[in-house]
User: Fold these one by one.
Assistant:
Number 1:
Amino acid sequence: MRRQNWLLAAAVIALAVLPLLTVATGPGGAAVFGGSDDHAGQLVAAIRPDYQRWIKPLWQPPSAEVESLLFAVQAALGTGTLAYCLGYWRGRRRAQADHAARD
Amino acid sequence: MHIMEGYLPVTHAIGWTAASLPFLVWGVKKLKDRLRDDPEARLLIAAGGGFTFVLSALKLPSVTGSCSHPTGIGFGTVLFGPAIMSVVGCVVLLFQALLLAHGGLTTLGANCFSMAIAGGYSAWAIWRLGGAVRLPPGLTIFLAAALSDLVTYCVTSVQLALAFPDPVGGVAASTVKFLGVFAVTQVPLAISEGLLTVLVMNLLRSHAGEIVAGFAPALKGAAR
């Protein structure tokens, strides 16, 4: 199980790193690894050049820095929650095992 | 990547919201029942929500030269079913729409339908089907997570194609174009999501084992 977990983690990292190595960077490093939703936006503009976004987001992060902060917060909250649960169950299982051993 | 704010015409935005609502109402009812009958499930649902939160914050580079993120829906679906997971998924989408300007409020119904509902129920169908034909649990979890991730982005492509049919080829040609943007990018990410889901499920099994299997029937099969 432990070996399988290391292999799984390595495969995920390889899948994320390989595109960075194999996909050629555009001239002057232009417009690569942008969001696929931006590409979809461009495609909408190509299909219906007259389409106007009829509503803008209520609030937008003022800069890319602030946006990256919020994404980091999101990831941290998620990881924290998951790790808390795992730790809680692990501790409880251990406590049960100790209790059973003492009886 | 979800449909951005304002990128669905009003009628489509209302239509997808209406399509999602019954699933969410059903999900909230199931969630309430579950928490009443089984307060221990609170942590399990938190773990499923946490996983979705992390995965949808991970914008990963893909072979197409653009970035997208996994959905994390398969994990929670396998643990406590698609009805409750659809509510959890919707909460994550709402967070991203309000605080990150990612997705949007008018497109929330459509995004909820593609990720939380189509993604969740397809993961559930694959999980059950894999169990029925006795595939190994690890492989079944991988397939459920990876394919539900792909299903999400295929549904997104169809949603956009319905709103923006190609002037020549109509909805079908437009679907192919949007699939070219979303689905191809998503293939390696879906594989990553499948692998990560198996990894976290392994951790859950080795650290929580029988405790969690008690209230996540899906884990009983996997916990051998």
Number 2:
Amino acid sequence: MNSQILKMMGSFVLLILAQVLLFNQINIFGSVNPMLYLLFLVMYPFDQNQTFYIFIGFLLGFFIDFISQTGGAHTIASLSVSYLRPIIMKYSYGLTSERPKSILTDPRKTNNFVFLLIFISVHHLIYFSIAYFSADAFLLIIKNSLLTMIFSLILILLISSLYRVK
Amino acid sequence: MQRILNVFVKYRNSILYLFLLGFSLIFLKANSNFHQLKLEKISLFFSSSLYSFSNSINRYFRLEKENQRLLKENEVLKSIQIRSNTLFLYTEGCNNKTNFPFDVQRVNIIKNSFQSQYNYIIIDKGAASGIKREMGVISAKGIIGLVQAVTDNYASVISILNQDMKINVRFKNRTTFGSLIWKGKNPKKFSIEDVVSTSSIKKGDTIVTGGMSSYFPYGIPLGVVTNLENNIQNGYYKIDAELFENPAELYKAYVIENSDFKEINSLMQNIKQ
């Protein structure tokens, strides 16, 4: 238990640093920066206290905003997505089925993927809506969220598979 | 108390979420000028629509007061307006009271008839407010009649919708005079008589009060000429006119007092004798 908490804290710090120092500088096609830090919110065990989880989601976004000097889009997006996680879970794993413990250990691959897809797309949509914050930029928001979503999805799938090997 | 706590515990996630969302919005606002502007716009939109809603309700309840205020203002403006119309008659200036004898008082019309051929109006001010016989009554866009009888608090007015009434009129920007007489059917349709056929009048000319009688000052706009026929046999025009305002639909009016009325009248008496 103790080692797991340490591991989580370690990955929390690591993911923030990786996001801020590395992935925010990538700029694929000029502006697309994959958001790896979502991995933390995804792999956080499902059976833990939801209230604490919301707070963690808030902190994660807050630190990234704070360090990278952006407004508050990361904070709002990750906070909202962590609040919505139980609902997304319901839709991707089914209402009646057994609640998975963690996305890393669950054997239902399709459901895991769907969960990841919804989770990331909701986050990106919120993030870009806040970043552009204008109804005129609707198409821009959609375009950017789709592009970024693809890269975030690939990156998160890759790195989460690394976790599983461990 | 227990229940309230239960609710808090039950919805703790949503409450925490909303709380943190509010916090991050403040954070967003503090950090980015762009978002600050946008958020202020949104809050302005909400507050302004809310305020305009409450304001429209408030305005509705203040209408009566506002109406009174406007009528008072009108009273002042009306007297200035009829003064300005007569500037050229009284070249000394419109502020000099002796040069311009007319004074305006606001009244409500409480009974207005128009079905008969000889119509009368009752107004809600009388001798107590200084209303006397043979004062003119005008409205915003025309004239209404002459005060006929006065009691303490009320007065009756001979409407211009009365076939006994002849009103001295003049065509705007011309020197021609005539008499305005009601035709007896439509409250807006009048005819103008006693206009010599040598005078130049066109269709669409504006009719104003003539200022020849001591009842009405010069220049109150009344209506327009709608039809014009030159009657060669008797040498007079046959003119149809339409009023700007329907005298049957009014409920506010102004009584104008000519303070030199007695003086002028006594001269007339002398002439008759």
